[in-house]
């Protein structure tokens, strides 16, 4: 790859100045004349029939201007599966499910009126546990499941609570398992957690008297919001404009569609008046969206040479009351079910289950942190049980060139190298070459992999145009939610056109009426997709500049180069400044050629194929993979159970580091978010009534500056991605994927305890330490390596018998027998 | 009940009628249209509303506007602007200490209060001072580095001033 000048350097953020001066305007900073304030009436029941909604008293509150209920708007929304109405019509499915909303002149009036809305409920038995939800005969959360519109690649099972089920069948799992020398089975769990963006969800909608809808919203995907709003309200796309101001963090929670339909519904009832719907911090926790919970059972069969030959994965996802977006997390976790490993024989089931809990959705990593929590602890346990070094064991079994993923995709040299990441972390943390071990001090490692989860035709596009002063303007509709997309887009253009960064303006707050189409800002796809589109656009701009430059200089195009803001004839060294070309070139005699130089360009993933419906086998299911590894060094306080993370070392194969300052920010930010979910975060939903127990920042703790690792170190491998812009691939989400598992593995190394349920709280650590001491006292067999609770046993006949059966409950059934 | 208050905001005297329950944050954002300070929770838990009241960092959402009479408030809008940034602002840019930026005004004001009181904080003092400012994006490392860098610049500046 040729030397780059600007790509690869730590240029400051292009949106930094407006953010450090407080000038950046977020949706909540916008003032709209005569704006109304909304309050949403939400279900206090986890599951109930809605018998009646009476709003007459509420409407009498002075200042109330509009009310909207389910019967007014019986329209379905949802990105992959339209299983949700704007307001519940005849049934509520989680505590927080919207039932009605009001708009008033002041927030106080709206609040007062909301208390006066009378709803008659008939409580129904609630599903608050995913394992209960999948049992035959469990109460149905969606009795109408068979009637919903569903994208072709999502497979719900009407008559059950299963909203999606992806099966992975590779090789001969059953046969291979029978031949294995060792078999291990373990179950791991992950609770629902919340994104906690610092800016809560907020949308402002206005419908004018001609019927045109305008929505300002804190969202990751303006075009998807528009598309889904149009679908929901049956409006032409030309009548709905979505504007996204500066966004205060998303992490997936602002992907797809969220508060926008509520705002539009109210705005339709108060034509001409802007209506603002803003989530309170409490609503943010339980009534917007959350990350799905996971119960994962893994079976690993290893041969005599310590190679995994057979691997079974059974993932049960707690999708909450609606599956709209979460069903695709289920799918992504399915086709990535083996993580960063090469498993020759695979039996995988990823099953989404409706429960009466908050709604699951996209969250940084899209299912990957959850499955890696299970996979990476499982690999560690197996290594310890087999008494081989966990690093060795990973290197022996990991993916790489010429290995195949669980879907049978053959990886190439350009697919990225997890082995190099493992080796780097090992080298820095000295995992293998360690000296004497201190008590309660440990080190651990975990790997990570993720591909963008998106439709095969997910597109990004850009518009590029020169202003009269030859300032290059780039319009993008990918959203800079903090990751630095606008800066990266400018860097690519600066590189390709040899322009200084100051000569480029990225117009980064899209309005769908004027901005280029972009599917969504999710999936760590923007540097790659928008970056590619920018580079393609630059080619065309260059072509236009050269076409005119050739005539101006009287030289063939082949002799021209673009440098220092000039088109130069390489032979004569004569040049013409860009400023003289960008809006048309005028010859000395006055006649003019060319015109304003502008272009648009796009990127669509190349050659993606659908998964086989029964086995998920597919040679190219995803556009790219990003691999990585993290290592943790920590001490455990045996008195309190607290962990002190002394060092956290991350290494990712990103293809190309576009901006070292920004990528470090992505890495450190992801690590600390990973520490949060790893050791402190859990949205506690009461197991009896389904109510959230910690819906505030006081009770739901996220990491503060005091909670970060003492030292964080980031390293990058650069194996160029063939279809990446100058070789780059995605990194935004990957940085939080392996952290909790790496901490768990270091904890085991430190004191021989395993915590299977995320998060690793001090209470759990203390309890496990006590339990271990008790067992040691009682003289049970607790040599360090065997302290793990993994079941080690030769392949039983039961294993062979049931493994081949096509039955989602397979692993559970088998565990029952094994007991 | 309404109160009339006279308060200096970023050096400018403001005289306004405020409701007894109006917060300082709402006074800044809704009355004065100074939207730099953000509302992340409105219950004193996130720090995105941090401003200076007589030089001390306070949560705008926990302070009542009615109590401001005769006092002085400083917000991010009074700190610096294009071409004349405060060392903290320049350091945040240099160290990539900003991502989504929603926490930034609060974090900057909190660190300003700290550095005015303690020009040479240790890492632990810095982390402790920032513990009430949540940032979900950056993982804090680049923020801490930026503040230490700014502290150095500020110390050099004040040395030059006193010299
Ligand atoms: S808005 Fe004041 S602390 Fe969160
Ligand atoms: S930069 Fe986003 S919350 Fe701090």
Q: Tell me which ligands are bound.
A: FE2/S2 (inorganic) cluster
Structural class of chain B, by secondary structure, is alpha+beta
User: What is the CATH top level name of the largest domain in chain A?
Assistant: Alpha Beta
- Which shape of chain A, going by the Cα principal axes? globular
Q: State the largest interface.
A: A-B, 57 and 56 residues
Strand order of the largest sheet of chain B: 2-1-5-3-4
Walk me through what this model shows.
The complex is a heterodimer of chains A (819) and B (163). With 819 residues, chain A is α+β, with helices and mostly antiparallel strands. Chain A has three domains: 16-23 and 458-603, Aldehyde oxidase/xanthine dehydrogenase, molybdopterin binding domain (Aldehyde Oxidoreductase, domain 4); 32-124 and 202-278, Aldehyde Oxidoreductase, domain 3 (Alpha-Beta Complex); 164-194 and 290-454 and 609-802, 2-Layer Sandwich (Aldehyde Oxidoreductase, domain 4), CATH 3.30.365.10. A seven-stranded mixed sheet of chain A has the order 3-7-1-14-11-12-13. Chain A has a six-stranded mixed sheet with strand order 9-18-17-16-10-33, sandwiched between helices. In chain A, a hairpin with a 5-residue loop joins strand 16 (293-302) and strand 17 (308-320). In chain A, helix 10 (368-385) packs parallel to helix 16. The longest helix of chain A is centred in the middle third of the chain and has 28 residues, at 526-553. Chain B has two domains: 2-78, Beta-grasp domain (Ubiquitin-like (UB roll), Roll); 87-162, [2Fe-2S]-binding domain (DNA polymerase, domain 1). In chain B, 37% of the residues lie in helices and 17% in strands. Chain B contains five helices and five strands; from the N terminus they run E-E-H-E-E-E-H-H-H-H. Chains A and B meet through helix 1 and helix 15 of A and helix 2, helix 3, helix 4 and helix 5 of B. One FE2/S2 (inorganic) cluster is lined by residues 39-42, 44-49, 59-61 of chain B.
């Amino acid at each position: 790859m040729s030397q780059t000048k600007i790509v690869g350097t730590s240029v400051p953020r292009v949106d930094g100045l407006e953010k450090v001066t407080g000038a950046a305007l977020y949706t909540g900073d916008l003032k709209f004349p005569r704006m109304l304030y909304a309050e949403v009436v939400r279900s206090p029941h986890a599951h109930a029939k809605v018998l009646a909604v009476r709003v007459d008293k509420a409407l009498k509150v002075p200042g109330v201007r509009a009310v909207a209920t389910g019967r007014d708007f019986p329209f379905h929304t949802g990105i992959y599966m339209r299983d949700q109405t704007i307001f519940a019509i005849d049934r509520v499915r989680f505590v927080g499910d919207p039932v009605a909303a009001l708009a008033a002149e002041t927030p106080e009036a709206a609040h007062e009126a909301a208390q006066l809305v009378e709803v008659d409920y008939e409580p129904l038995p609630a599903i608050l546990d995913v394992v209960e939800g999948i049992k035959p005969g469990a109460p149905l959360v969606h009795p109408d499941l068979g009637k919903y519109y569903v994208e072709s690649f999502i497979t719900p099972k009407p008559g059950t609570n299963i909203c999606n089920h992806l099966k992975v069948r590779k090789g001969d799992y059953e046969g291979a398992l029978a031949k294995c020398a060792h078999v291990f089975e373990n179950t791991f769990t992950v609770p629902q957690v919340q994104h906690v963006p610092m800016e809560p969800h907020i949308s402002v909608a206005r419908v004018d008297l001609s019927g045109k809808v305008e929505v300002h919203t804190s969202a990751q995907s303006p075009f998807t919001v528009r598309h889904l709003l149009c679908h929901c309200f049956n409006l032409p796309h030309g009548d709905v404009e979505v504007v996204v101001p500066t966004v205060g963090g998303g992490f997936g929670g602002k992907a797809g569609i969220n508060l926008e339909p509520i705002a539009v519904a109210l705005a339709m009832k108060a034509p001409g008046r802007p209506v603002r719907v803003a989530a309170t911090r409490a609503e943010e926790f339980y009534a917007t969206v959350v990350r799905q919970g996971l119960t994962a059972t893994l079976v690993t069969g290893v041969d005599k040479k310590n190679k995994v030959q057979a691997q079974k994965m059974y993932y049960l996802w707690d999708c909450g009351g609606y599956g709209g977006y979460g069903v695709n997390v289920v799918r992504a976790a399915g086709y990535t079910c083996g993580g960063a490993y090469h498993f020759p024989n695979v039996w995988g089931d990823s099953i989404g289950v409706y429960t009466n809990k908050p709604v699951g959705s996209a969250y940084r990593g899209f299912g990957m942190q959850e499955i890696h929590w299970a996979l990476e602890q499982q690999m560690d346990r197996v290594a310890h049980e087999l008494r081989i070094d966990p690093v060795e064991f990973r290197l022996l079994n990991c993916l790489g060139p010429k290995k195949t993923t669980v879907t049978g995709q053959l990886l190439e040299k350009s697919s990225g190298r997890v082995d190099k990441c493992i080796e780097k972390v090992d080298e820095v943390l000295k995992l293998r070459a360690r000296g004497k071990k201190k008590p309660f001090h440990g080190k651990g490692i975990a790997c990570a992999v993720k591909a963008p989860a998106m439709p095969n035709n997910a597109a990004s596009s850009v518009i590029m145009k020169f202003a009269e002063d030859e300032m290059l303007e780039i319009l993008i509709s990918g959203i800079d939610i903090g990751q630095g997309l606008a800066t990266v887009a400018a860097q690519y253009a600066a590189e390709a056109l040899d322009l200084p960064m100051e000569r480029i303006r990225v117009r980064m707050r899209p309005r769908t009426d004027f901005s280029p189409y972009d599917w969504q800002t999710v999936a760590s796809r923007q540097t790659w997709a928008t970056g590619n589109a920018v580079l393609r656009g630059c080619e065309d701009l260059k072509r236009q500049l050269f076409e005119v430059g050739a005539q101006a200089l009287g030289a063939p195009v082949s002799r021209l180069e673009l440098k220092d803001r000039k088109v130069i004839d390489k032979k004569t060294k004569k040049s013409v400044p860009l400023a003289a070309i960008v809006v048309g070139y005028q010859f000395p005699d006055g006649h003019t050629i060319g015109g304003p130089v502008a272009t648009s360009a796009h990127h669509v993933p190349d050659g993606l194929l659908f998964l086989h419906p029964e086995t998920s086998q597919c040679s190219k299911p995803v556009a790219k993979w990003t691999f990585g590894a993290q290592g943790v060094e920590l001490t455990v306080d045996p008195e309190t159970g607290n962990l002190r993370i002394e060092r956290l070392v991350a290494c990712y194969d990103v293809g190309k580091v576009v901006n070292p300052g920004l990528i470090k920010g992505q890495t450190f930010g992801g690590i600390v978010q990973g520490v949060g979910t790893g050791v402190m975060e859990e949205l506690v939903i009461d197991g009896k009534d389904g109510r959230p127990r910690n819906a505030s920042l006081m009770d739901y703790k996220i990491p503060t500056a005091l909670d970060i690792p003492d030292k964080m170190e980031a390293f990058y491998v650069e194996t160029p991605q063939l279809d990446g812009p100058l070789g780059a691939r995605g990194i935004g989400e990957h940085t939080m994927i392996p952290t909790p598992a790496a901490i768990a593995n270091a904890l085991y190394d430190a004191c021989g305890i395993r915590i299977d349920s995320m998060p690793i709280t001090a209470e759990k650590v203390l309890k496990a330490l006590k339990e271990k001491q008790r067992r040691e006292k009682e003289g049970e067999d607790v040599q360090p390596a065997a302290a793990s609770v993994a079941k080690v046993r030769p392949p039983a006949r039961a294993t062979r018998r049931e493994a081949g059966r096509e039955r989602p409950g397979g692993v559970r059934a088998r565990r029952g027998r094994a007991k | 009940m309404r109160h009339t208050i006279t308060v200096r905001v970023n050096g400018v005297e403001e005289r306004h009628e405020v409701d007894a329950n109006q917060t300082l944050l709402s006074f800044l954002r809704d009355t004065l249209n100074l939207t730099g300070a953000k509302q992340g929770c409105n219950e004193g838990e996130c720090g995105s509303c941090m401003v200076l009241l007589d030089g001390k960092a306070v949560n705008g959402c926990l302070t009542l506007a009615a109590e401001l009479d005769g006092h002085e408030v400083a917000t991010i809008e009074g700190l610096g602007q294009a071409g004349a940034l405060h060392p903290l602002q320049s350091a945040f840019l240099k160290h990539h200490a900003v991502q989504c930026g929603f926490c930034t005004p609060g974090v900057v004001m909190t660190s300003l209060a700290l550095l005015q009181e303690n020009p040479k904080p240790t890492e632990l003092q810095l982390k402790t001072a920032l513990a009430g400012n949540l940032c979900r994006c950056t993982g804090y490392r680049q923020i801490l580095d930026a503040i230490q860098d700014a502290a150095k610049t500020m110390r050099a500046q004040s040395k030059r001033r006193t010299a």
